[in-house]
Amino acid sequence: MNKEVFITGGTGYIGKRFINLLLKDGYSVKALIRKGSENKLPEGCSYIVANPFNENTFAKDIPAGCTFIQLLGTSHPGPKKKDLFKTIDLLSAQVSAKAAKLAGAGHFVYVSVAQTPTNVMKDFQQCRAEGEIAIKETGVKATFIRPWYVVGPGHYWPLFFLPVFKILELIPATSKKAKALRLVSLHQMLKALLYVVQNPPDNLRIMEIDQIRKIK
Q1: What CATH number does the domain containing 105 carry?
Q2: What pTM was computed for the model?
């Protein structure tokens, strides 16, 4: 199995923690970063300084046959960041898809978002859905992981609403939607990411919230 990983968004909330897991598991990890972010990466992770919105600046640095992990996106996404979802989340996913194809990556892992319709975050969901389409069109083997909200250090506020979520799950009219938008812990998310890297699919795999929560 190819033990090389190329990652975008490696200095972010999930990225730094996941790189540490990969390194401990014997993977060779190379991160795409912007100038000045070198010290934000875990020790042992190599990097290139490039423009994540121009595939020509980094495609040549992606190891052939590697796992490409797309984590780059708008920090603290909210309804008011509609334009950023298009210029950061969607554009970077489209560019990364092209770069991975050019480099001959073996597996593309994309952290998308739950696609159960919502009014509040519909623009975010739409951009992530379009990102999935761009990746599928490359023909590269891919995994789409679709959490809703990842709870962890600094991101615990949704836990205050857990009693409400539980009630909504019990009400027939809201049960299906409430279950489709369950919270995912940071630990569950990291375990799911490691699992999909260790177990690449034959073609396309989509991991929904229930599957994320079941990974041991």
Answers
A1: 3.40.50.720
A2: 0.92
